[in-house]
Amino acid sequence: MNDTPDPVPDAPAGCESCGHLPVGSIELVSLLLILVFALSAVLVTSVWALNNQAAEISSLQAQAQTAQTE
Predict the structure, then answer these.
(1) What's the pLDDT tens digit per position in 48-63?
(2) 8 Å CB contact between 28 and 21
(3) According to DSSP H, which parts of the chain are helical?
(4) Cβ distance 67 to 59 under 8 Å?
(5) Calpha distance 16→10 (Å, rounded)
(6) Are 49 and 55 in contact (CB under 8 A)?
(7) What separation in angstroms does the CA of 12 have from each of 4, 9, 38, 45?
(8) CA–CA dist 43, 49 (Å, integer)
(9) How does pLDDT run across 16-35, given as a tens digit for each residue?
(10) Which residue of 5, 18, 45, 51 has the smallest Cβ count within 10 Å?
(11) Measured between alpha carbons, how far is 44 from 48 in angstroms, rounded to an integer?
């Protein structure tokens, strides 16, 4: 009988299934970064618009309150 274990194959230096990706890894990371920045801009713009509307509503409520007291 042969009691020596089989030699361990060398680990591949690169990605074995990189050919299965529709785009290269750099392009994929770039696309994801652009998507994150775009969604962050949408979120910041939405919050800014909501804050402006809240300030305008407060101003109108204050004007209505002063008009009612007169």
Answers:
(1) 999 999 999 999 999 9
(2) yes
(3) 25-69
(4) no
(5) 13
(6) no
(7) 24, 9, 36, 46
(8) 10
(9) 666 666 677 888 889 999 99
(10) 5
(11) 6
